[in-house]
Amino acid sequence: MRDDLLPVLACPVCAEPLVRVDGGQVGCATGHRFDEAKQGHLTLLPAKRRALTADTPEMVDARIRFLGRGHYAPVERALAAVVAATEAPGVVLDVGSGPGTYLAHVLDADGPDETASDATAPDGRPDSPPAGAVTARLGVALDLSAVAIRRAARVHPRAGAVVGDVTERLPVVDDAAAVVLDVFAPRNQREYARVLHPAGVLAVVTPRTGHLAELAEATIAVDPEKERRLRDSLEPTFALRSSEDLTWTMDLSAADVHDVVHMGPSHHHVDPGRVFAPTTVTAAVTVSTWTVAGPPTC
């Protein structure tokens, strides 16, 4: 984990910011300590949640293969545009990140890997970056799946990775995020409002009716009430700023079809020995952006 990301992260026990402490651990001023995994990520879950599991290794591998072939490039471009247009200070927080593919893409699009100046002030503290220097954003991938986060920990040099639970208090300090990404993930209205900078943006990607329709027998159907449920999950704390429907076709090989079926919840309901045929598939999603409209609701 990058040391410059630690102050953004919060202790899951007392919510105090984290720092590097003796022995290679990280911890808070209250005295709670957490080991850094050899892959570089942190597990910041309340003890009662440590037994839970999420995406399996097979799901994570399928997602990495499928997204790595560029099939969801329109979503990647849309999210990169949101991050590029956001002027608020802070990190990009990808909640329900999986292996961090979308986070890596927006960080790549954001700018070069120049995050701090080597200059120091007379008192030994880091000095301000020189005039004209480019400071690219840092990112944090957060997911309940330790399998996914082990991959996300190495997905980009400006990213850190954390095992955390979106349904609980996020292990992130207040106002730390310029952008929160929620791509096909559960939502936590109260926590998103807390961790977002007041000028920050929440970007949500949801499937629309017709998404992967050609694979209906092997995938979970999109709820026709999805848009209403999205609004219910965010309003009145958040106000809708923009909404864009993206529709495109994907010419998928048999391997592609296997991976898109197995990279999500459908994985648990499909015969692992099923053989798929190549086909053309429709993708239909909505990319919406939201701003904080008021105090978080209970």
Which terms would index this structure?
298 residues; alpha/beta; 8-stranded mixed beta sheet; 3-stranded antiparallel beta sheet; 7 helices; globular
What does the model show?
With 298 residues, this protein is of the alpha/beta class. The chain is built from seven helices and eleven strands. The protein has helices spanning 57-68, 73-85, 101-110, 146-152, 189-195, 226-234, 254-262, and strands at residues 19-20, 26-27, 33-34, 42-43, 91-95, 139-143, 159-163, 177-183, 196-207, 238-252, 279-292. The strands form two sheets. Strands 4-7-6-5-8-9-11-10 form an eight-stranded mixed β-sheet, sandwiched between helices.
**Shape designation:** globular
Query: What percentage of amino acids are in beta strands?
Result: 15-25%
Could you say which structural class the secondary elements and strand pairing correspond to? alpha/beta
- Figure out the total of helices: 7
Number of strands: 11
Q: Largest sheet, if any?
A: 8 strands, mixed
SSE pattern, N- to C-terminal: EEEEHHEHEHEEHEHEHE
Distance between the termini: 32 Å
Mean pLDDT: 85
Largest sheet, spatial ordering of strands: 4-7-6-5-8-9-11-10
Sum this structure up briefly.
With 298 residues, the protein is α/β, with parallel strands linked by helices.
